[in-house]
C-alpha cells in the first residue's frame, strides 16, 4: 500500500484532496498533519474518520521534532504540502503567521523529507506568486515571480526554497500553482463562500473597490486531480500551473450569485479597496495539459450551482464557523469599511 503524508488536510483544498484520493485509490493510506488553526476543521473529514487507511496527527509543520517523528513512523511515498495561512486580507492585517507557517514550515518539511529520503514532495502553491496581469496575457510557468501581498510573498519564498533544495540537494520537489478555487468546505472568508453565506441570510456583500478585478475560477476537484497528476506523473524540479479557464470580474460574479440566489442588487455594498489589490489573474495551463494529461472537467455553471447547493445544505457547518473567532476577524476586516459607505 502506498503511504502519503498530506499537511493541512483539514482545510478546504486539503480535505477535498484526502477525500478524493481515498475514494479513487483503494491502495492508498494517508496521514494528515494539521495544526487545526482557525481554518482547520476536523468536521471537513468527519465522513472518512473511521476509514482505516486514514490517520490524523494534530501538530504544527513548524515543529521540527514533531514533523521528523511523524515522517519517521514508516515508509512514505510522497509528501503533499497544503498547510498554509491562505487568506490575503489576513496577511495584510498581520503577516507574522504567514512567514512562520508558509516559509519556516516549508523549510522544516523540506529538511525532514530530505532526511527521510522521501521520494516525492509536492508544494501546493498559487498563481499569486506571479503578481498581477493587465487586461491581456496569461501566467505561464516562465512568468517572473513578482508577489504583491504578504501572503503571496510568503508563498513565493516557499517556492524558492523548494527550488533551491531541488537544485542544491537533488531534492525530489515539484511545485503546483493554481488559480482561485471554489467548491465545498471553503472557509467563508474567501469571496465565494462569504458572499453565498451572506446572501443566503439576506445580508449585503462587500465588493472591494469598483469590482473590476478579475479572477480565474477552478473547481477544487479539478485542482485536486491536478495535484494528484503532478504527484504521480510530474517531473522532479518542475512547476505546473493549473487554472479553470474561467475569468470573471468580481462584480459580474457577484451579480451572477444574486441571480442564482434570487436576491436584489441592493444587497451589493462597494467598500474601500484592498491595499495593493492585484487586478487580474489568468492562467496558461497548457504545460499540465500536455505533460500530465490533465484538463479542468467541471464547468463553472455546474460547479457553482453545486457549490451553492452545498452551502444551502450545510448551514450548520457555516453557522458553527461564524460563531467563533470569525466574528472578531469580520469586524476587524469589514467593520470600518462597511460603515464608510
Ligand atoms: P485553508 O486556509 O482552507 O487551509 C489551510 C489548512 O492548513 C488548515 O487546515 C490549517 O489548520 C492548516 N495549517 C495552517 N497552519 C498550519 C501549520 N503551521 N501546521 C499545520 N497545519 C497548518 O487553505 P486552502 O484554501 O485549503 O489552501 C491550501 C493550500 O493551497 C495553501 O497552501 C494555499 O496557499 C494553496 N492555494 C489555495 C488556493 C485557493 O483558492 N484557496 C489557490 C491556490 C493555492
Ligand atoms: P479572495 O477570495 O480573498 O481570493 P484572492 O484574494 O486570493 O484572489 O478574493 C477574490 C477576489 O474577491 C479578490 O479580487 C478580492 C475580492 N473580494 C471582495 O471584493 N470582497 C471580499 O469581501 C473578499 C473576501 C474578496
Question: Describe it for me?
Answer:
This protein has 341 residues and is α/β, with parallel strands linked by helices. The chain has helices at residues 12-24, 64-71, 88-93, 96-115, 150-169, 191-200, 220-233, 250-260, 286-292, 300-313, 315-322, 326-340; strands at 2-7, 28-34, 54-58, 78-81, 121-126, 173-178, 180-182, 205-208, 214-219, 239-242, 247-249, 268-271. The strands form 3 sheets. A 7-stranded parallel beta sheet has the order 3-2-1-4-5-6-10, with helices on both faces. A 3-stranded mixed beta sheet has the order 7-9-11. The protein is globular and about 55 Å long. Bound molecules: nicotinamide-adenine-dinucleotide (NAD) and thymidine-5'-diphosphate. Residues 88, 180, 190-191, 194, 206-208, 213, 215, 250, 274 line the site of thymidine-5'-diphosphate.
What are the key terms here?
seven-stranded parallel β-sheet; binds nicotinamide-adenine-dinucleotide; Rossmann fold; binds thymidine-5'-diphosphate; globular; 12 helices; 341 residues; alpha/beta; three-stranded mixed β-sheet
Spatial separation of the terminal alpha carbons: 57 Å
Mean pLDDT: 97
Spatial order of strands in the largest sheet: 3-2-1-4-5-6-10
Which architecture name of the domain at 2-181 and 219-242 does CATH use? 3-Layer(aba) Sandwich
User: Helical region count?
Assistant: 12
Question: What is the H/E order?
Answer: EHEEHEHHEHEEHEEHEEHEHHHH
Number of strands: 12
**What is the CATH topology classification name of the domain at 2-181 and 219-242?**
Rossmann fold
- Work out the helicity level: 40-55%
Instruction: Characterize the largest beta sheet: strand count, sense, and whether it forms a barrel.
Output: 7 strands, parallel
CATH homologous superfamily caption of the domain at 2-181 and 219-242: NAD(P)-binding Rossmann-like Domain
Bound molecules: nicotinamide-adenine-dinucleotide, thymidine-5'-diphosphate
Reading off the top of the CATH hierarchy, the class of the domain at 2-181 and 219-242 is best stated as Alpha Beta
Q: What general outline do the C-alpha atoms trace?
A: globular
Radius of gyration computed on alpha carbons: 19 Å
Sequence stretches where pLDDT stays below 50 over 5 or more residues: none
In terms of DSSP E residues, the strand content is 15-25%
Structural class: alpha/beta
